[in-house]
Amino acid sequence: MNDGRRKGLFVAAVVVLAALGIYLTTLGDGSGEVGTAGPAGPAGTRTVTAPPVAVPSQVATTPSADFDVYSYLPLTRDQLGAAADLARRFTAQYGTYTFDDPVGRADRLKGFTTVEFGDDLTRTVTSPAAVEHDTADQIVSKGTARLKSIRDISATSAVVVVESTQRITALSGPKEQIEDYAVTVVQVGADWRVYDLQLAASGQDGDVTP
User: Fold this and answer.
1) Phi/psi at 98 (nearest 5 deg)?
2) What is the pLDDT of residues 71-116, one digit of tens each?
3) How far is CA 51 from CA 33, 46, 110, 142, in A?
4) Whole-angstrom Cα distance, residue 91 to residue 28?
5) What is the spatial distance between Cα 196 and Cα 198, in angstroms, rounded to a whole number?
6) What is the DSSP string of 127-182?
7) CATH fold for the domain made of 73-202
8) Residue 2 near residue 21 (C-beta atoms within 8 A)
9) Beta bridge partners of 149
10) Strand order in the sheet with 140-153
11) Spans of all domains in the chain
12) Distance between CA atoms of 160 and 167, rounded to whole angstroms?
């Protein structure tokens, strides 16, 4: 065999080996999919790795603007707003009174309440002990209130936590008194009425079964 023919066969062999090498580096795992060539392994071979699998995020995200959380609650947005606002206004009135008009205080509170709870409040604020205490110190109280949270909701009631602030002037000196109340509001016909009032810190959730 002459030198020219030997050189031709050698070049052909090199081309075949190069093509085979390229094919092996791009060969998949037998599933028909082409993987990514990894680092060189023993004896000059290369390992093939599968593409990474995307894992869904487990972090809570804000829903889209058209997501309506109220559609999952037993009360509509308007109903819940009306109930909470009634609880706030009632609490402000509960903390507003003067020592010389306990009956007027009772009448104002009854405008917010069920008949039964209004009667209970009237007995409380016009009791001889309460009247004597307020008169002796000549107490005048101005109440304000703000909503803090909603503790419970059903189809006909809500328990709302309200912060009450009373600014009091008296013979014993001025003071500010702050309390959190759990106010139970129930639906009576098409209206809302206050059914119960508890100190929120006492652990009472409010009675929601009138």
Assistant:
1) -125, 150
2) 888 889 899 999 999 999 999 999 999 999 999 999 999 999 999 9
3) 10, 16, 71, 70
4) 73
5) 7
6) SHHHHHHHHHHT-EEEEEEEEEEEEEE-SSEEEEEEEEEEEEE-TT--EEEEEEEE
7) Nuclear Transport Factor 2; Chain: A, (3.10.450)
8) no
9) 161
10) 97-98, 140-153, 157-169, 175-188, 191-199
11) 73-202
12) 22
Going by C-alpha positions, the residue among 125, 90, 104, 99 that lies closest to residue 197 is: 90
**CA of residue 150 relative to chain centroid, distance:** 10
Among all chains, which residue has been given the structure tokens 């306990």? Answer: 102
Place of tokens 């001025």: 174
Q: Can you tell me the distance from the alpha carbon of 65 to that of 158, in angstroms, rounded to the nearest whole number?
A: 26
pLDDT of residue 65: 72
Q: Is the dihedral of CA 162, 203, 152, 154 positive or negative?
A: negative
Where does the pLDDT of residue 35 fall: very low under 50, low under 70, confident under 90, or very high at 90 and above? very low
